[in-house]
Amino acid sequence: MKVVCVGGGPAGLYFSILMKLRDGGHDITVYERDPAGSTYGWGVTYWAGLLDKLRAGDPVSARAVEDASVRWSDGVAHLRGATTRHHGDEGFGIGRHRLLDLLAGRARDLGVRVVHGREAEPGEIADGAAGAGLVVAADGVRSALRTRWAGHFGTEVAIGRNPYIWLGTTQVFDAFTFSFVETPHGWIWCYAYRFSADASTVVVECAPETWRGLGLDRRTEAEGLALLGDLFSDVLEGHPLTGRGGGAGAPAQWLAFRTLTNRTWHRGNVVLLGDAAHTTHYSIGAGTSLALEDALALTASLHAGGAAPAAGGAGLDAALTRYENVRRAELLSVQSAARYSARWYEELPRYLRLPPERMFALLGQRHSPLLPYVPPQLYYRLDSAAGRIESLRRLKRWLGPRLAGSLHARARS
């Protein structure tokens, strides 16, 4: 099969690796519009369960990714001068640039053509000039291929309420760190985690009123970094924040999160992968993992019969439909967790009235569909009791998914 992957992020590169491992005869080209080495961003997170899946897909790239990652197992929250530390599941961080280098190198070693600085135009794909039996749209949340046929895909985008910004720092955190700071204009907070031996990612978020009140909507990148460095000086300990580096007077790269869904994920021989198909709020740290899992599922669906289906036939449509159905089912719980996590932060003042250790405990419960509908103090007491009483624990496990399904159905109607 001749395959064209549009987008040289983790999803497209990993899919090309998996396809080559299944059948070295596949003719695969990955087009990435940006020059080599120009990727934005600092580090990405993932959890131990992903490594097991990567080892099953390709032990060589899994070992390279694991060796290049850093680990942590604690979470730390700073609030009102108090510091609370909880021990949790093991997490991993890796520089985005390093991850892409590893995957691109592995893909090339297997015979994949990885072309940087070249964008496969939607018109070119539509006209069949690429001559591909399968076109994988792995070109992100603003996918040009998906946008061309947005009506067919049934693309819907919901814009989040809170502005946020991705930053870096030379401060190296020993745990996944949260800091909540009260200002005269409201609360502002950050999530921070290391991704290498000498660097960390810092994501800053706040309500729109706080963002405007602090003048962050008007400040240049340099001015904003100076203000944020002062606000989070307790955790930065003198280390500077770094931005995209747009030059003197450049605006700061504040964003509003785009939750993207599609009614269908394929059209003819074009299939959506990763953020082009779906997004989940960054606060659950799952974006890269979900993209790689998409690649695993698509490869498995294409080779379910032992060999990839012929281009243009019913077999290809069946394989793409199978991929979509499998991934939709697997994403339900993750998407629910992401919706409630985003909502928790949008309603943050509701929880900041609690003592710091209780607030941090509910931070760990932010994926719960029950939490928004129960007074925080009461939820904390019930959750603490559920940890001790088996019958309450069973009731919580039973009630949570049913309430989430009911509320999700009501929101869609």
Could you explain the architecture of this structure?
- It is a single chain.
- The chain is of the alpha/beta class.
- 42% of the residues lie in helices and 24% in strands.
- The strands form 2 sheets. Strands 3, 4, 5, 8, 9, 10, 11, 12 and 13 form a 9-stranded mixed β-sheet that branches. A 6-stranded mixed β-sheet has the order 6-2-1-7-15-14.
- Helix 1 runs parallel beside helix 11 (287-302), helix 2 (48-57) runs parallel beside helix 11 and helix 14 crosses helix 15.
- The two termini are 41 Å apart.
- 43% of the residues are buried.
- The model has no long low-confidence stretch (mean pLDDT 90).
Per-chain topology:
Elements: E1 2-6, H1 10-22, E2 27-32, E3 43-47, H2 48-57, H3 59-67, E4 70-79, E5 82-95, H4 96-109, E6 113-116, H5 122-126, E7 134-137, H6 144-148, H7 150-153, E8 156-169, E9 176-183, E10 186-194, E11 200-206, H8 208-213, H9 221-231, H10 233-236, E12 241-242, E13 255-261, E14 266-267, E15 270-272, H11 287-302, H12 314-346, H13 356-363, H14 376-386, H15 390-412
Parallel strand pairs: 1-2, 1-7, 2-6, 4-9, 7-15
Antiparallel strand pairs: 3-5, 4-5, 8-11, 8-12, 8-13, 9-10, 10-11, 14-15
Helix pairs in contact: 1-4, 1-11, 2-3, 2-11, 3-4, 11-12, 14-15
Low-pLDDT regions: none
Label the overall shape.
globular
CA gyration radius, whole angstroms: 22 Å
Distance between the termini: 41 Å
Report the major sheet. 9 strands, mixed
How many beta strands in the DSSP annotation? 15
Helix content: 40-55%
Strand percentage lies at: 15-25%
* Separate helix tally: 15
* Average pLDDT, all residues: 90
Structural class: alpha/beta
What's the helix-strand series? Answer: EHEEHHEEHEHEHHEEEEHHHEEEEHHHHH
